[in-house]
């Protein structure tokens, strides 16, 4: 529960500003959230959990991934403790941008095993076509076979499927009929209902024109038709277009058996709260960075306390918009930086070397916004870690 605290902290540090000067930033009063779920949830909520790199491995990060498996699974235990699900190995800021399919399958295997050891904690895992090089994809049948291979591997270890968007299909699919051929064939074979992921090109430019058209209205028509035709095989759809009205419009058109999982890291609070005609569940990258606050806010919503929900989750949205600002595909840098500040890992080293993908000014503003939203679990430790990063970048904070 939130504790009564004075309005300001005694902690301060020097942070860079856009004009090149330094300001003395004094931290706000901290908030604390339960470390485990208290109460119940009336929304299904997944965190697209990050993978913790092994900073001591002798690898070239741009070319190969080295994973700290213990820390990676420990982070998933943290997410499950909070009543959230894990969306495993589907995060395009690392999957396909540093995390290859063999490593992803090992991650899925370990995560599913850990979930089952807890009594079937919630985990769905990404199945795509990323082991098929786009330039090697010659036909739609190649795409189908690639999907089938990953789905079979995940189901073999007991996993549930998130059907990821395919770069190869984006290259080859010319129209609605091509997409229907692939999705109908693949969905007919899955063991249990899947989550379909519609990912906008702001997250992955290689997915431009998905569903066979650059016209988003026509793309939605195609996606809705395919999903509703296969509703018995679809648990839900995750939409990552950063366009709240399109998500609402699609939500209202889905078969009632199909959940809408918001992937809108700009507008999730209002989409989850919903309106008289419905609401969205959640499958969000930002829920990695704000898991304790998200869990507590969702528990307040389930208890009928929408004001409490908004009080906690509302202030996190500005941070999320900053982390997911264009180029959006670099958002994982901010998510992992939050994990470092909050003690979930002892270093700021990333899969693919992506700790370098955001500027010092970006990280400084992230710190300010995280502090103002009450998201620094241990403000003293977070301040020392922020200072350490700044020193490496030439700033004595």
Describe this structure in words.
- It is globular, with a radius of gyration of 21 Å.
- It is α/β, with parallel strands linked by helices.
- It has 15 helices and ten strands.
- An eight-stranded parallel β-barrel has the order 3-4-5-6-7-8-9-10, surrounded by five helices. A two-stranded antiparallel sheet has the order 1-2.
Question: How would you summarize what this structure contains?
Answer:
This protein has 397 residues and is of the alpha/beta class. The chain contains 15 helices and ten strands.
What are its keywords?
397 residues, eight-stranded parallel barrel, two-stranded antiparallel sheet, globular
Bulk shape: globular
What's the tally of helices? Answer: 15
In which order are the strands of the major sheet placed? Answer: 3-4-5-6-7-8-9-10
Could you give the order of the helices and strands? EEEHEHEHEHHEHEHEHEHHHHHHH
Q: Give me the Rg, rounded.
A: 21 Å
Kindly report how far apart the N and C termini lie: 32 Å
On the 0 to 100 scale, the average pLDDT is 94
